């Protein structure tokens, strides 16, 4: 008694398979041609004993391999399991919200959440959302935007160029199994270091010139945004806290810059008022005393 087995192979391997199974009855069915490739179905009969032996061998191969087995082991496949949690503090403006929306559109493996807990509880929140990276936008005084990029739950949080490169690779690298990932590559993200700052730019890959649709393919890059600049401030040993590993001595907060500007404006105002007071004093000193025998006083 035999068992019917249906297998499908490409055209190049079909001849080898036919030679292998010449001892058994077989039937070749031609289904058609797609993209200059023939589609064939090879139907052949195998004895039930052979089929059971093959299934037993496959079942044995699925188990754990013993430690003394020196068989060839394939290279371990590296899987990208990075997931990013995106959230912000209260008081963000519309421009900050648009930047967050652009990053959410660029990263299909991102998850959004609302922050209603203190900063040191962010690692726990990321763990609840099954995320191992966190991007936290902190708005201060409705004008300044600070970005916290952290590996949760053990850190680190930012800085040193090699560390930043590895951190951004984990955050912006899209896993191939992300639910919103596309099966093609149409844009490039660049991170450039200029003046000790990180410049982020997004470019679209254009295969052909739209003005020459029938011309030869010419690959080019067109910037489509968003674009922003990151100034490294500090690196912490843990996630969103811990000992300070690095601090940027050249960083001056925008609040300090605005305070200095207002102080300079106040100095100008004070100097102007002091000049007016000195001018009024000189006028009073130059004024003559009024004569009691003046015509205006005699005939008043």
Summarize the structure.
This is Brix. It holds the Pfam family Brix. With 300 residues, the protein is of the alpha+beta class.
Q: What does it look like?
A:
By secondary structure, this protein is an alpha+beta fold. Among the domains are: 49 residues; 126 residues, Rossmann fold, CATH 3.40.50. Helices cover 31% and strands 29% of the residues. The chain has seven helices and 13 strands. The strands form four sheets. It has a four-stranded mixed sheet with strand order 5-4-6-7, with helices on both faces. Strands 8, 9, 10 and 11 form a four-stranded antiparallel sheet that branches. The longest helix is centred in the last third of the chain and has 33 residues. The radius of gyration is 37 Å and the shape is elongated. The N and C termini lie far apart (146 Å).
Side by side, the strands of the main sheet go 5-4-6-7
At CATH level 2, the architecture of the domain at 84-184 and 230-254 is 3-Layer(aba) Sandwich
**Number of helical segments?**
7
Percent strand equals 25-35%
Category from helices, strands and their pairing = alpha+beta
Overall body shape = elongated
Please identify the top-level CATH class of the domain at 84-184 and 230-254.
Alpha Beta
């Amino acid at each position: 008694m035999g068992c019917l087995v249906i297998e499908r192979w490409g055209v190049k391997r079909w001849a080898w398979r036919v030679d292998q199974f010449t001892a058994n009855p077989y039937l070749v069915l031609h289904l058609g041609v797609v993209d200059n490739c023939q589609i064939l179905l090879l139907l052949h009969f195998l004895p039930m004993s052979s089929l059971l032996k093959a299934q037993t061998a496959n079942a044995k191969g699925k188990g754990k391999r013993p430690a003394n087995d020196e068989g060839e082991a394939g290279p371990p496949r590296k899987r990208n399991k990075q997931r990013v949690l995106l959230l912000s503090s209260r008081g963000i403006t519309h421009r900050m919200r648009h930047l967050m929306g652009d990053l959410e559109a660029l990263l299909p493996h991102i998850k959004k959440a609302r922050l209603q807990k203190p900063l040191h509880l962010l690692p726990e929140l990321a763990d609840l959302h099954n995320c191992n990276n966190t991007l936290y936008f902190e708005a201060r005084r409705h004008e300044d935007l600070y970005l916290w990029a952290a590996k949760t739950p053990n850190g680190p949080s930012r800085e040193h160029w090699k560390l930043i490169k590895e951190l951004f690779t984990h955050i912006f690298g899209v896993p191939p199994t992300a639910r919103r990932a596309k099966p093609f590559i149409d844009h490039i993200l660049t991170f450039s270091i200029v003046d000790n700052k990180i410049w982020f730019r997004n470019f679209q890959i254009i295969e052909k010139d739209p003005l020459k649709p029938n011309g030869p393919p010419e690959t080019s890059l067109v910037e489509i945004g968003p674009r922003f600049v990151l100034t490294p401030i500090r690196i912490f040993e843990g996630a969103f806290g811990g000992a300070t590993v690095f601090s940027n001595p050249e960083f001056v907060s925008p609040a300090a810059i605005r305070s200095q500007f207002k102080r300079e404006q106040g100095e100008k105002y004070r100097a102007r008022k002091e000049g007016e007071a000195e001018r009024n004093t000189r006028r009073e000193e130059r004024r003559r005393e009024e004569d009691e025998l003046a015509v205006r006083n005699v005939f008043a």
